Amino acid sequence: MTVKASDHYLYRCFSCRREYPPALFEAEYRYLCPSCGTAENNRPLTGVMQVVYDYDHLKKKIPRKKFLQLPPGRPWLYPELWPVRDIQKVLPAGRLETLALPDNLLFEISSQNQNIFFLDDTRNPTFSYKDRASILVALKAVELGITDISVASTGNAGSSLAGICARLGLNAHVWVPEKIPAQKRLQIQGYGAALQVVKGSYDQAFDVNRRIAVQQNWYDRNTAYNPLTIEGKKSAAYDIFIATAGDIPGYIFVPVGDGAIIAGIYKGFTELMNLGWIDFLPKLIGVQSTGSDALVRFMATGKFKFREAETIADSICAGAPRNLYMAAEAIRESHGHAVSITDADILVAQEYLSKKHGMLAEPSAAITWAACKSMVKIQKDRCLLMFTGSGLKDMASVRQWCPEVEARSAEEWMDFFRD
């Protein structure tokens, strides 16, 4: 199947490679491949769809030099690479700007004779990387005349959808496990979303949300299940390309829960290769907690075995990564690695980054620092770490390394410093 000019993109199944026109999915709320797609409880998804463009045509249409002059964090400025028609007609420019990510997404620090880059998504509209997916899903909903969107989340995807929907006048329905951090639960409620708390894990919340979304005819934002979530998350690759003026790093450390972020990053860099704008893929390092390491185990054995996940890094806590197979491909094809880090080392990394560099990241973001420092052999290479969520969204971890402070009266403090 060829990409039609009227559509400028099509859908291709990751598993069986069959291709479909956009109307088949978008008019009927389809998500997985009609031929081979499955969504079973406590299992990775099969038949996940990918959005494909005519890259040979785009090579001629979009000059590399002109693209590098664009500001990062505004994917609607290159609509040819997004599955929304007339994206700037969906919303006026001023409204789109309320969805923009910060211009200074990329920064660098020096540590032990190594310069390390960070892609900082902690300052996004709702303070996490998940805004990249929510923005695209919400814009698609506006294009299609959809008013209600649902998602299952450990917190960040839910608060992201809630906040973005509030900005665009849409209704968000968010399903979360009962152990969600209080800050994330309050953020979801504060944005006005309908919050449903599930007794059980994220995997159980994912499955019940998916069934009820079909029953209620809501648009489903679930990670990887809706292919636009992967598509939205690819925007980080383009932002890295712009922010480094095309001089991309050799290694990128990516937190992995469901696997959609690393799959999206890989897709973005693959598209940059297809456009002829870069000549190598950065090695992608998928980082997991030892208490939620399904990808690490899959890369070692080639087999998925469900195991209940438990980690302080709640944003990457998933016993059944829904996008496991794409995540594994991203690591293999980029010649990267999958590594696991203990919760104790995650907390050490979080405290170090906060106290030494003034960067308060949630555990699922700080984990990339711990992973980078554990890989001694690459510490002379240019590395970029993904900071995917603010530490203010989960203060329980911070309390573990911040001692309680005793309250004293003014007179007692005067006496204390007089002695």
Please, could you describe this protein's structure?
It is a single chain. By secondary structure, the chain is α/β, with parallel strands linked by helices. It contains 18 helices and 13 strands. The protein has a domain at 106-125 and 229-399: Rossmann fold. The protein has helices spanning 22-26, 55-61, 64-67, 87-90, 93-97, 131-144, 156-168, 182-190, 202-216, 227-233, 235-243, 260-274, 294-301, 324-333, 343-357, 363-374, 395-399, 410-418; strands at residues 10-13, 19-20, 49-52, 106-111, 114-120, 148-152, 171-177, 194-198, 219-220, 251-255, 283-289, 337-341, 383-387. The strands form three sheets. It has a six-stranded mixed beta sheet with strand order 4-5-13-10-11-12, sandwiched between helices. A four-stranded parallel beta sheet has the order 8-7-6-9, sandwiched between helices. A three-stranded antiparallel beta sheet has the order 2-1-3. β1 (10-13) and β2 (19-20) form a beta hairpin. The longest helix has 15 residues, at 202-216.
